[in-house]
Amino acid sequence: MGDNLGGGSPGDGTLIAHALARRGVQKSFACLFDADAAHACFTAGAGAKFALNVGGKHLEALGPSLHVKANVRRLYVGNFT
User: Which domain, by its residues, includes 12?
Assistant: First the structure.
């Protein structure tokens, strides 16, 4: 997560996501910018399930990568009409 992505924040901070996982929160949402993870999901394709590290690539102070079980439900190319 990040504050003001257009102003320089990398958007891949994982501190809140790690805190939710430590507390055993089952359903939550954390928006992370991670081009490598997005590419891995597109490469795997819709319906794929695999282990993936997301976020935590730019600033150590914002938290390490978060290891997740990815489930690629759908893929979009960004054209929303």
Answer: 5-71
